[in-house]
Design brief:
This protein is α+β, with helices and mostly antiparallel strands. About 30% of the residues lie in helices and about 20% in strands. The chain starts with a strand and ends in a 16-residue tail after the last helix.
């Protein structure tokens, strides 16, 4: 798997032990109808998809959300020798945020350090870079409170990337 983030593990849990831990981490980190399912194939170990049942209805909507029409809306988590591996979530920043939330939750569970392929930079378990409430809360974290201009920027740049029900004030946002 082309990895972008890893959590080093010693010892590595079995596949049977890891799946319920992943499901629990997704449930704690994310709100809404997220699903965890075993992916076909193997990439140095088993791979799971963390997805929403929502899919774009046509090519225009897929372009709007920065996702493919051919696959589920979500991201992959792999259990590789010595680590949990997270593939880049693509161009959609909402998926990047959701994957970051689950990464932090699993790092806490395993008391592991999160590292990235792009360099030495990483962070220890207990970090809450992504888990600050909603997707909107993550975006607005450095604004106290966001100005009207900031709100307009968030609306223009990021609202379209969150699937229906996941923006601020909506069912899961």
């Amino acid at each position: 798997m082309a990895n972008y983030s890893h959590i080093k593990l010693r010892p590595r849990p079995s596949e049977a032990d890891f799946e319920p831990i992943l499901r629990e981490a997704v449930g704690r980190a994310l709100r809404g109808p997220w699903e965890v399912s075993k992916a076909d194939g193997d990439d140095d170990g088993p791979v799971w998809r963390v997805t929403l049942s929502w899919m774009p209805k046509d090519k225009a909507e897929a372009r709007q959300y920065g996702v493919s029409l051919s696959g589920p809306f979500g991201f992959c988590v792999g259990l590789q020798p010595g680590s949990i591996a997270f593939r880049g979530a693509g161009l959609n920043y909402f998926l990047h945020w959701a994957q970051g939330c689950v990464t932090e939750e699993l790092a806490d569970h395993f008391k592991g350090r999160v590292t990235h392929d792009s360099g030495d930079k990483g962070y220890k378990h207990g970090t809450r870079e992504y888990r600050r409430g909603s997707f909107y809360g993550h975006l607005a974290r450095n604004f106290n409170p966001p100005s009207e201009e900031d709100e307009q920027y968030f609306e223009k740049q990021f609202h379209y990337q969150a699937p229906p029900g996941f923006w601020k004030g909506e069912e899961f946002g």
